[in-house]
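Here comes an entry:

___
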Amino acid sequence: MTGAEQARAAVAVLGDDLRRRMYDFIRRSGRPVTRDEAAESVGISRKLAAFHLDKLVAVGLLSAGYGRPGEPRPVGRAPKVYQPTGLDVRVSIPPREHELLAAILLEAVRDQHADETAREAALRTAEEHGRALGAAERDRARPGRLGAERALTCAARVLERYGFEPVRVAPDLLRLRNCPFHPLAAQDPGLVCAINHALLAGFLHGLDAPAAEAVLAPRPDACCVELRGTR
């Protein structure tokens, strides 16, 4: 599950008023909370509280254990306790990936070579990130030799997870309806679009898909890059 998918799942779970109130209570408590305490905080039965608490654990908002750290172990089984995981939940519609852009820029600053400009460092780092992403997908899917159509199908599956909203408009053409780096791309399109292009070109290289290429093709209200089969 990607960060965006986990965030959406967490928001869906918190859409229930009882779960949201219990989660708020546990966050404010500053210590692990038992089922009985969570149930009492919202005025429901222990059994119903356990159901809602397990939903919060399942999406990563809470962690569960037994007993409170530093307290003497009670006779018999220690009570199950819950505490926040520190999951940072943010949902954007359409999806945004500002953390990915920030990670690329931070790494570029840390690892800038003496003979390259800041821009060159950012583009190199973006390409390296893309290569790693493509190689990871190739290792996972083991697609064999990739022609243009299969490469674009594979790319669409991955880029969907990163909020690009890919649309196959032709067998050898994949357009990306959403810019996950907006509105930062609007502030400096020359830099951010170049980073995006380097990232996606690197992804195709890491995927070992020479029959496809990432091309800068800016369109209003869409990603500046599209993926095409090479001719």
